[in-house]
Design a protein that fits this description.
globular, two-stranded antiparallel sheet, 253 residues, disordered N terminus, alpha+beta
Length: 253
Amino acid sequence: MYGVGNTKRLRRTVGVVMAAAVMAGTAGCGGSGKAAGADRAGAPDGGAVVSPGGTPGPGPERLKALLVAEGEKFGPYEAGEPLLDEPMSEDYEARPARCRPLTSLGKAGHTAQAFAKASVPGEWQAVDTEILLRSYRDAGAAAAAVKSLADAGGRCAGGYTEDRALVEAKVLKVEPVQAPALGDEAHAYRIVTQDVKDPGIALYKYLTVVRSGSVTLAFRSDVMDTKDFGGVPQEIVAGQWEKFAKGRASSAS
């Protein structure tokens, strides 16, 4: 349908090929596929990631415990197993380079020390959401990454090109939308993309990022349809935030 189904299937196909490559390159390494060290430098015990002169952020295993688990439900949505350790969007590039944070905070120039990912898949014409938690060396590094995102949201409002490995997509515009009143700061965007098969068709995706101390919670939603679905589902954001906040509170007590 207008190429949108093909684009979605392409993401899944490329993901399977990449997953095989990842498995081949990491044979004998542990991990469930939902959490891992972003630069493979996490604490050996999965606890805090310590950096000189900074407040420790949660390590891979702790971060995973703060993430929604497969089977958890949020209204009509249910969390599922992510396709890869890293979301497909981590492998996207953007031109000009200043727009990269909109494809991934991993391209914001501030390296996360651990990440954990979940997927809340949707059926045909239903919203599909990816959740990614990132832990930075301290709150300052996390804030710098989010500032890079905010800068990109303004400087790339008129559009940019997204390189999706096998295809290129033209982002027509980036618009700020209402962000949730959560954490230390939050940003949300509506990203309008030109369909790769039919330039006359506009597709929609939404990005919401919440920062709490040294951790960022990113939500990216799209749909296998041409409709503007209105944003990242509030039930998913609220459900993930509740689990995260409770987990951080219990670890601090």
